[in-house]
Amino acid sequence: MRNKVFIDSSVIIAGLASNKGGAHEVLVLAELKVIIPFISEDVVTEVLRNVQKKLPGALEQYYLLFKTLPFIIVDFDNDTLESAPKMINEKDAPILAAAISANVDWLLSLDKHFLWKTWAGKVDFPVCSPGTFLEDLRSMFD
Q: Among 5, 11, 53, 100, which has the minimal tally of Cβ within 10 Å of its Cβ?
């Protein structure tokens, strides 16, 4: 069974910026269809804005990435969006709401607002960095 993984914009940007590291490995797993990658329209917009601003040389890779990878774009339901700001800041609430609405198995981020919180009992999936996800994924096969 493949894991449904919501990928935050910070992971996609890091994966575009370097062909090494956990973020890049997660994108490779998505390309190889080892995981099912979920994103939202907010993620697409944020990645484009940041690539244009900080990595203009990676624009071609950005377009290729979104043409190549089998991303499933999900939206949040309004009830979830209303409850998400109680768990995280308002800026990141749509990302959390989309992951909850999509019923994913994991949410991956490099954003401190996601990583520095305790999520046990708040959401039904782990929220972690790509590196932690990869370690946990490997341990499932050991």
A: 53
Bridge partner residues of 40 (DSSP): 74
- For 22, phi then psi, to 5°, come to -65, -40
d(CA 54, CA 56): 6
Residue-wise pLDDT for 75-114, tens only, equals 998 888 888 988 999 999 999 999 999 999 999 999 999 9
Q: Positive or negative, the Cα torsion across 96, 102, 105, 108?
A: negative
33-75 tens-digit pLDDT: 999 999 999 999 999 999 999 989 889 999 999 999 999 999 9
